[in-house]
Amino acid sequence: MRYCINCCIHLLPNDLHRQCFRCRGPDHNNQRCPVCRGENKIPLYTDSKQMKWLAVLEVRTDHCESWNGFFCLRKGKLCSLMFGLIIMTLVMVSYILTGAKHSLLLIPSPFHYGAFASNPSLMDNESLSDMKDYYQPSKMNISYVKDYPSIKLIIDTITSKIEFITRQRPDLEELRKQEPHMFSVIPNKFLPNSKNPCWYEEYRGNTTTDPYATNSYALYSKRFRIIFDYLRKVFWNHLYHYKDKHYRLRCLPHFYIIGQPKCGTTDLYDRLRLHPDVRFSAIKEPHWWTRKRFGIIRLRDGFHERYPVEDYLDLFDLAAHQIQSVLQSDAVKERGKRSNIIIGEASASTMWDNNAWIFFYDNSTEGEPPFLIQDFIHAFQPNAKLIIMLRDPVERLYSDYLYFASANKSAEDFHEKVAESLQLFEGCVLDFSLRACVYNNTLNNAMPVRLQVGLYVVYLLDWLTVFNKDQILVLRLEDHASNMRYTMHMVFQFLDLGPLSEKQEALITKSPASNTRRPEDRSLGPMLPTTKAILRDFYRPFNTKLAQVLFDDAFLWKRT
């Protein structure tokens, strides 16, 4: 030992420090030194008190001549070195695994987090102003490019199984058996002096009766209670009295905005409601035809009590009051004019969501639903008008993912979910028809992303089995975003609405876009180019058929 450790610890007492080799000169002998003699141990002192933490610090004084000339390290330093090497190894392993999963590595990793993970277990609109966000350039992610050939095989299998077969339309008696109460409430004919389908219904309650006491929309949502509180206050003022009986005006919508989610339906709804002759339900999306009448609030939460048709009709009472005021005016009574006010409903699930059928309709044929939403709407309103807003299904799916995914959103995560959903869809079409898979509740809940919502032509063809083509207006969000005035004029003409003043038209067409993409979603950027190519291949045959049905190549979405 060249020098005593006492010289390195400045907290030692002075009497010990003076005995140190560095203080007493080169003649210091550690065998005769009272401090160094003995077992070659020196207790560690702090403030003149022996420290008991980790027992006693040993300082070896022996030379390492036995290592035959090689350098030696103290035991403490050797342990530290080994510990450091272990930590470095763990960090490198973690980097490799994490980098492979999130595609941070520049070369394909043997630990690549594959697209085909294990099978998992289970409103609605998009911005107009941020359409340009979809077309920003994206950095190529090398580790995902190798997924394309494998997924392309899956898409080829799906494409080979596509058949657009016309469904068998159920007859009216079959529908009556399924929904007898609904048919007992809604009449066959409506008032001739109202453009909107309305009728008078006898009200048997008294002045102390709450007409909305059992309304499920009011019971399950605090947001709707404010609306119903107002309706309670004005309810008796709008009853029609005739021969000692009370009657209330009931109405159904004249038109429906039926889809699709993340395609601009909210923006269309917000602009249409500014027209002086247009009214809407008390809430934008009641989802009654597709979910609430089956008792579905959220399918993952199970079933609640079914919402009766009366609860749905209550949502149109505000508009019915205004129609009734027009009907009771002198102009209508004396001159034979009619009310031109029309009511709309804008549930974006109406076009596609038939997930509940499997729980209520037993007589299915090879997994296909025997009854669809449009069968019942047509049974009551054969003259109803339907508006559909669509967009490029590839971009719709990514927007849908960004809107509804709750955590860990990224372009890479979206890619993996798309690949997994395609694999599940392939498994279905190998055993069942295309329609059975599109309306398959189990499959739709299992797919991590809603691929099926973008299969527009499948739903449209089923709606065309019951409604005439001139009753359906199909718009593109891309056209609406680029020339809003033109698309709104198309809607006004389709609904046979009266002319507007320049001020009214400016208010409707120049107001800011509704339901724009959230800032946190914008920051995630576009989808990966490989993902976009995969989805282009998947949706191509469906877009081709859609363009043929509508006689419009714009629905091929080639330029996007």
TrEMBL record:
The keyword DNA-binding is annotated on this UniProt entry: no
TM annotation in the entry: 78-97
Domain Sulfotransferase as annotated: residue spans: 253-517
Family matches, as InterPro entries: CS_Sulfotransferase (IPR052654), P-loop_NTPase (IPR027417), Sulfotransferase_dom (IPR000863)
BP GO terms, sorted: hexose biosynthetic process
GO molecular function: N-acetylgalactosamine 4-sulfate 6-O-sulfotransferase activity
Similarity annotation: Belongs to the sulfotransferase 1 family.
Name this polypeptide is given: Sulfotransferase
Gene field: Chst15
